[in-house]
Design goal:
single chain; alpha+beta; two-stranded antiparallel ribbon
Length: 139
C-alpha cells in the first residue's frame, strides 16, 4: 500500500487546547458581562445628553448598576433615583385640575432604541475579537 504523506496535527491540538482553556476559564461569562457593561455605559452617555438641564441634578443622577445573572439571563439596570425622573421621562399631568399634559422627553426610551439598532454591529465586532483571541492562544 502506498503512503499518502504525513500531516502535522500540532496546530490543531494547540487550537483545541486554546478553546478548552477559554471555556474552562469562564471567558464567555466574562465576555457577556463586559459587553453588557459597555453597552450600558454607551446608553448612559446617550441618556445624559438627552436629559434636560435646569439644575443639572437630574442628569447627574443617572446610574449604571452591576451586571447580574439570574439563570441563563444577564441583566443590567440604568436608573435615576430622583422622584420626578419618571415624570420627565414619560410625561405628566399638570394644572390645578390636572387636565393639562406635559409631554415626556423619553431620553431613556429613545437612547435605548438607538443602542438596540447599533447592538448587532457592536456584538459582531466584539465576538470576532474574542474568537481571534481564543484562536491565537488565549492567555
Amino acid at each position: 500500500m502506498a503512503r499518502l504523506g504525513r500531516f502535522d496535527y500540532s496546530e490543531l491540538e494547540q487550537l483545541s487546547q486554546s478553546v478548552q482553556t477559554a471555556l474552562n476559564s469562564n471567558v464567555i461569562d466574562q465576555f457577556i458581562r463586559d459587553f453588557l457593561l459597555e453597552m450600558a455605559y454607551r446608553a448612559d452617555r446617550k441618556i445624559k445628553m438627552r436629559t434636560p438641564v435646569d439644575t443639572g441634578d437630574l442628569r447627574r443622577r443617572w446610574v449604571v448598576g452591576e451586571v447580574k445573572r439570574v439563570g441563563d439571563t444577564y441583566m443590567i439596570e440604568i436608573s435615576n433615583n430622583l422622584d420626578y425622573a419618571s415624570y420627565v421621562e414619560n410625561g405628566h399631568r399638570t394644572g390645578k385640575d390636572l387636565t393639562g399634559w406635559v409631554e415626556g422627553r423619553f431620553m431613556a426610551k429613545i437612547s435605548m432604541k438607538e443602542i438596540e439598532r447599533q447592538l448587532p454591529a457592536y456584538l459582531q465586532r466584539k465576538q470576532t475579537e474574542l474568537i481571534e483571541k481564543i484562536f491565537s492562544g488565549w492567555s
